[in-house]
Design goal:
The complex is a heterodimer.
Chain A lengths: L2 H7 L1 H15 L4 H15 L4 E7 L7 E6 L16 H9 L3 E4 L12 H4 L5 E9 L2 E10 L8 H110 L5 H12 L2 H30 L11 E3 L1 H16 L3 E6 L6 E3 L1 H18 L4 E10 L2 E8 L6 H4 L19 H11 L3 E7 L3 E9 L10 H6 L1
Parallel strand pairs in A: 7-9
Antiparallel strand pairs in A: 1-2, 1-5, 3-4, 4-5, 6-8, 9-10, 10-12, 11-12
Helix pairs in contact in A: 2-3, 2-6, 6-8, 9-10, 10-12
Chain B lengths: L1 E6 L3 H12 L10 E6 L2 H9 L5 E5 L7 H11 L4 E6 L4 H10 L4 E4 L4 H47 L7 E3 L5 E3 L2
Parallel strand pairs in B: 1-2, 1-3, 3-4, 4-5
Antiparallel strand pairs in B: 6-7
Helix pairs in contact in B: 2-3, 3-4
The chains are: A alpha+beta, B alpha/beta.
The structure holds adenosine-5'-triphosphate and magnesium ion.
């Protein structure tokens, strides 16, 4: 009895082969697993050496060396000459071959390197077939010192080969699947990245289109609104002056009447009755309020139209000027300090900044908007911290508050024109979008970080020098 | 007294500006203004042909003739009037054109601020007065120089008491022609 028969009939050996197959399915390194399977087979057949050749994917007869014992490493993965050697023969015919003695004696066409490796004493070679298709072949060899293989050994091996073929096919499928998964996931990642980029670009486009259409609308509407606004505002001023005169006149008459004392001029009696019915003092006070409140309303309209107009390139452009940003911040702070001082403690954390080229009053407008927003976010006892600094080629100015914060779902909308969470009359939702477009015009950007209940920090970044800031950006070109 | 001419296609703007200019209570006051208003630029041009006007204020965007072209016409026909353009839109190109071609003195955007507008009008009037005065002064100086020159020549002649007197000839406008 040959030792081979004993070993391969052993359940443990078969189980181990099965395990190796599993291992392959579990994603171990394919070459390694093939090598282990081969070594297992070599042991099982008490062989001295062995090799596995597999048909290259996408071909019908191109073999490549998939595993081998006693072979120089570099040979693994090498293609075998088509139709050559024992492997070529076996794959071509689909029949196992037993070679005893010099291989040349069998009449096989021996040209392949595997066959020539050394002169074999005894060898067996089986095709690996799955579902009627040959996927490769396995060979085992014995040296002179061992007994030769017999036809029985060949048959017995043949019985095992379908199992081995399955293991190899499974393995190959698994590898393919792994590769595909890898491919798919890289593809997926790429798609996600591209998607993200597209989304960004789209958001940009939407944002600039929004701004552009607002700008267009604003330019058109500004004219229509500004004319009535102009005469209404001016008339209000004239009316105020007239009313002052009228009240002066009335007061003089009343004084005169009082001085006159009691008389019985009938016309005067009627006037006195009328005067008693009227609360003259109230009228005078309330008329003043009425005029000033109306003026406030009109001035608010004026500001909104002006803000809107800032979207269009038409907004009167300022010349670039190198300014001390800290001084600008302080001036802006002075304007809002009165409003802020009851709610917030203002901390100035100025770093060192060089002078920055900008359109000064536009930049002040940005600071003003950020400070007003910060103030409005705080109910009481808050802190507003203004910090500045330089990194790389940018200057940065941040306005941080300890206010209500911004809900995550609103974070990407706050720069939209007309987006506001403030009550009617308090916010038009233009502050940030105007600021955004001003900063963009300077070649900079605004970033925001916020946590609900903890506070918000807006950071404005500006290039230290303006390369072509006075050139309109794309959105503005379209708006123009 | 200052005479103002205001052109705007919107009658309400015209009456608001008229009120503003006449109302001495809104400072600074324009002293004794006479104000003519027109909703059409061509009509205003006709009026200017036979009325003396110190300052012309025109809206920029108007249907029959835009403010820049109108003021350019005014400049050509009546160079001594001061010119202000007003606009409710911020059409930079148009305004630049107005400044360059119509030689406007000021640009005012709508809605205006009452005191600012009045101050601008007064400033422009003062500026114009200065220009005219300067020119009149220059004319006077020139005229005087002519007189002096003439007197000097006369002196020369008298001094020499020579037959050369025939060489001095008077031109039509009173200048002196010197001939060898
Ligand atoms: N510092 C901040 N803290 C919390 N929320 C803020 C802050 N700044 C902006 N926001 C949110 O962003 C929205 C948009 O701000 P934006 O300045 O554009 O408009 P607004 O302040 O509502 O009105 P406007 O500035 O025109 O008066 C605000 O309504 C608010 O919800
Ligand atoms: Mg705001």
């Amino acid at each position: 009895m040959t030792p081979a028969r004993g070993r391969i009939a052993d359940l443990d050996w078969i189980h181990a082969l099965y395990e190796l197959g599993q291992k392959a399915a579990n994603g171990a390194h394919p070459q390694q697993v093939r090598q282990e399977i081969l070594e297992h087979i070599v042991r099982g057949f008490d062989a001295e050496s062995g090799s596995i050749a597999l048909i290259v994917d996408g071909t019908t007869d191109q073999l490549e060396l998939a595993a081998g014992t006693e072979l120089p490493r570099g040979l693994i993965g090498n293609p075998l000459p088509r139709g050559a050697g024992v492997f070529g023969h076996v794959v071509e015919t689909g029949q196992p071959v037993l070679v005893n003695g010099d291989a040349a004696e069998t009449g096989l066409p021996l040209r392949g390197s595997v066959d020539r490796q050394r002169s074999t004493h005894s060898a067996m070679c089986w095709p690996l077939r799955v579902a009627g298709r040959t996927i490769g072949a396995v060979a085992v060899n014995r040296a002179e010192t061992s007994p030769r293989y017999t036809a029985d050994d060949l048959d017995q091996g043949q019985a095992l080969m379908s199992l081995l073929a399955l293991v190899m096919a499974n393995h190959r499928m698994h590898v393919e699947r792994e590769n595909r998964i890898l491919e798919l996931s890289t593809l997926n990642a790429t798609m996600q990245r591209i998607n993200g980029m597209l989304e960004d670009a789209q958001n940009q486009v939407i944002q600039s289109e929004k701004l552009a259409s607002i700008g267009q609308m604003a330019a058109g509407v500004a004219h229509e609104i500004n004319n009535p606004l102009a005469f209404a505002l001016s008339n209000l001023g004239s009316l105020e002056a007239y009313l002052t005169k009228i009240f002066e006149l009335l007061a003089a008459y009343i004084d005169a009447d009082v001085a006159l004392g009691s008389t019985n001029i009938p016309a005067l009696a009627a006037a006195r009755m009328l005067r008693d019915e009227t609360d003259f003092e109230f009228l005078r006070r309330d008329t003043a309020d009425l005029v000033s409140e109306s003026r406030d309303g009109l001035l608010r309209v004026k500001r909104i139209v002006q803000d809107l107009r800032d979207f269009s390139r038409g907004g009167v452009e300022e010349v670039l000027q190198a300014i001390d940003v800290h001084a600008a911040l302080d001036r802006t702070l002075n304007i809002v300090r009165n409003e802020l001082k009851y709610k917030a403690n203002i901390v100035r954390n100025y770093g060192s900044l060089p002078e920055i080229e900008c359109m000064p009053s536009r930049l002040n407008q940005v600071f003003l908007n950020l400070l007003v927003n910060a103030g409005q976010s705080i109910d009481a006892n808050g802190t507003i911290t203004i910090s500045t600094g330089v990194d790389d080629k940018d200057a940065w100015i941040s306005v941080a508050d300890t206010g209500c914060g911004i809900a995550p779902e609103n974070l990407n909308r706050i720069f939209d024109p007309f987006f506001t969470t403030k009550p009617v009359g308090q916010g038009t939702g233009l502050g940030l979008s105007v600021s955004h477009s001003i900063v963009r015009k300077h070649g900079g950007r605004i970033d925001v970080e916020s946590e609900v209940g903890r506070g918000t920090c807006f950071t404005v970044r500006l290039p230290l020098a303006q390369a072509n800031a006075s050139l309109p950006n794309e959105a503005e070109k379209r708006a123009a | 007294m200052s005479s103002l001419l205001i052109v705007d296609d919107e009658p309400n703007v015209l009456s608001a500006m008229r009120r503003l200019c006449q109302n001495a209570a809104v400072m600074p006051a324009i002293h004794n203004p006479s104000i003519a208003t027109f909703t059409s630029a061509p009509e205003a041009l006709d009026y200017l042909d036979d009325h003396e006007v110190d300052i012309v204020i025109s809206d920029y965007r108007m249907p029959d003739m835009d403010g820049a072209s109108f003021l350019a016409c005014v400049k050509e026909r009546h160079p001594d009037t001061a010119r202000i353009i007003m606009s409710a839109c911020s059409d930079i190109d148009g305004i630049v054109r107005a400044v360059n071609h119509a030689g406007i003195f000021r640009f005012v955007s709508k809605p205006w601020s009452d005191p600012d507008l009045k101050a601008t009008i007064l400033e422009v009037l003062a500026h114009r007065r200065l220009l005219i005065e300067n020119r009149e002064l220059a004319d006077e100086v020139r005229a005087q120089r002519d007189v002096i020159l003439r007197q000097k020549l006369e002196l020369d002649r008298l001094e020499r008491e020579s037959p050369g007197i025939t060489k001095v000839r008077w031109t039509e406008d009173g200048g002196v022609l010197l001939e060898e």
